[in-house]
Structures are given as structure tokens and as C-alpha cells.
Specification:
alpha+beta, four-stranded mixed sheet
Length: about 140
């Protein structure tokens, strides 16, 4: 079954929303303590009421997101290649990814992946079924 494009976008956006308008720093960046100090002084380290466009916090071997203060801390320098690694790591269990391409200005990178396994999907709308075999969108039960 083909996975609907709009559902791919929703699945990816739920994870990638943390990068939208976020400050992305390497964990050993000398600016990080100063930035956190300013966030603390301004009272926004634990978020601001206006910050409603945020994703779920995550922590992987490659990055950690702190959506309340729109901050992503990475293990490596944020290049297009680094972003591909992080995105693949975040989405590999949610989507069968065959290829990811990132561009940033004149820089571009592409990575292809071996697609393995299949996901049980709803025959009505194409959404991946949860652990109980239920579609989270339409309620179909396998």
C-alpha cells in the first residue's frame, strides 16, 4: 500500500517541528552556556506563552530537542550531511525512507537507504497502525 503524501508530511513535521525557527548548537559550542544564561535571565528557558508551535522533546545519540525554549543541541556540526543523519535517525522507525536530500544555499547532500521491512497500514487511509492494530486517524481495527 502506498502511504499518502499528506500523511508523510504530517509524520515528518511532528518530529521536525522542533527545528523550525530553533537555535541549533553543537553540544560543545562555547556560546551554549551564555545562551542558556540569557534564556534564564529573560524567563524563557522553560518556554514562553507565545511558543505554541513546538514538537515533542526528543533525545537521541545525535541530538536533543528542548522545544519549550526552541533549542536543539547536536553532537556534530550542522551541515546538510549532519541534518540528514539526524532526520533519518528520528524518522527511520516511522517511515520507510529510501532517500533523503537536503539543500542549504549552495550546499546539497543526498543519502540513499536500504528499505527493509514493512509497516502495517490502515486499508482505508494508509496510516500506520499502532501497537494494538488500530488506525489513529480513522479508528479502523485490524
Amino acid at each position: 500500500m502506498v502511504f499518502p503524501c499528506n500523511e508523510i508530511k504530517k509524520t515528518a513535521w511532528d518530529v521536525l517541528r522542533n527545528f523550525d525557527h530553533a537555535l541549533i548548537l553543537r553540544e560543545d559550542d562555547p556560546l551554549l552556556p551564555a545562551v542558556l544564561g540569557v534564556y534564564e535571565a529573560q524567563g524563557i528557558r522553560d518556554g514562553a506563552p507565545q511558543n505554541t508551535m513546538k514538537g515533542e522533546a526528543f533525545r537521541t545519540d545525535l541530538a536533543a530537542a528542548y522545544p519549550d525554549c526552541r533549542l536543539v543541541i547536536t553532537k556534530e556540526t550542522m551541515t546538510v550531511e549532519g541534518m540528514i543523519k539526524i532526520v533519518y535517525d528520528l524518522l527511520k522507525d516511522k517511515l520507510n525512507i529510501a532517500k533523503i536530500t537536503f539543500t542549504s544555499g549552495a550546499n546539497a547532500a543526498c543519502q540513499e537507504y536500504e528499505v527493509s521491512g514493512t509497516l502495517n497500514r490502515c486499508p482505508l487511509c494508509g496510516i500506520a497502525l499502532n501497537e494494538e492494530g488500530v488506525c489513529p486517524k480513522c479508528g479502523y481495527r485490524a
